[in-house]
Amino acid sequence: QVQFVESGGGLVQPGGSLRLSCAPSGRTLTIATMGWFRQAPGKEREFVASVPWRYGSTYYADSVKGRFTISRDNAKNTVYLQMNSLKPEDTAVYYCNTIPPTPPWGQGTQVTVSS
């Protein structure tokens, strides 16, 4: 089992930006498609974005299209989520995992968008 470690979250004002990072704990990044997910208080965890291992298309939830960009650097063993034009409704704990997700989930990283 591979657990992922997410980082880069924080408190940001509406309209601001953050860059999240994700790396596997103690292993090389899997060749699977990777995704970012988020869970807001009182809500189910939801898909945010995905990126294939090497070739193919990225996909985004409608709520983040045009504002978020997912990427991966296999040489650095890391998946990224660049988040721009952040809105209060983006407030959530963000997680990365394979697509489809496999247990266990990591601790996630908290993103809070508030003035």
Describe this structure in words.
- A hairpin with a 7-residue loop joins strand 5 (46-51) and strand 6.
- The model has no long low-confidence stretch (mean pLDDT 94).
- Helix content is 0%, strand content 45%.
- It has strands at 4-7, 10-12, 18-24, 34-39, 46-51, 59-60, 68-73, 78-83, 92-98, 109-113.
What would a concise description of this structure say?
This protein is mainly β and 115 residues long. It has strands at residues 4-7, 10-12, 18-24, 34-39, 46-51, 59-60, 68-73, 78-83, 92-98, 109-113.
What structural class results from the helix and strand content? mainly beta
Number of helices: 0
The 3D shape can be described as globular
For the residues shown, what is the average pLDDT? 94
Q: Helical amount among residues, as a percent range?
A: under 10%
Low-confidence stretches: none
How far apart lie the N and C ends?
39 Å
What kind of sheet is the major sheet? 6 strands, mixed
- Biggest sheet strand line-up: 2-10-9-4-5-6
Radius of gyration: 13 Å
Count of distinct strands:
10
Secondary-structure element order, N to C: EEEEEEEEEE
- The portion of residues forming beta strands comes to over 45%
Multimerization state: single chain
Keywords for this entry:
115 residues, mainly beta, four-stranded antiparallel sheet, 0% helix, globular
